[in-house]
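QA checklist item 7 of 12: single-chain prediction sanity check.
[x] sequence parsed
[x] length recorded as 205
[x] structure emitted
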Amino acid sequence: LVTGQGREAIEVLNESLDENAPQENSLALLAALMVKAKQYDKAARLYELGRQAQPSSPRWLKGLARVYLTTNNEQKLGELLKELARADADDVQIRVKLAQMALDKGDNQQAGNWARQAIYADVLNEEAHRILAEVALQAEDYDTASEELVTLVDLRPDDPAWHEQLTAMCNEAPQPQRIREKLEALFDRGEDYRSAGKILLRFEL
């Protein structure tokens, strides 16, 4: 919570605030202090003032997004994140967050779309590959699921969580030989990929 000098700063900033022509840095500081004081409605109103004064600046959208993330307002958060994604084609984390939110809601099509956009911006993003793997598994698209899970083993060769998922999926897949071939190719790369061999050993015969 805000104490001492923080409360004094809030009083001064409130007194000097001109809502019709707010000063950018003072407004941003006041909004941040409102967040710190857990006065989220006031913080959101201040960020909205900034947004109205500077509609092209992502600063206010990001501030609002933090408020809605903190207060678990997923509907408004999702809308803001989509605006931020449109404004910045290279922001990977926003796209990963949108993908996870869509996955949590059961909207696998949107989850896959956002995850693929994240991978276009960062081909090594583990979370985006994980989400694509989950989407594919739920759709029983074992070819895509195997590609994504093997990619995860490639990116994180010592993570047992991916190994367990891949092993379970392999034993359910109608054509596990294709997955075996991908794992064998990883295994042949050398010491860093010996974990792929452990997964091969766990296949049901």
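[x] summary fact logged: The radius of gyration is 23 Å.
[ ] second reviewer sign-off
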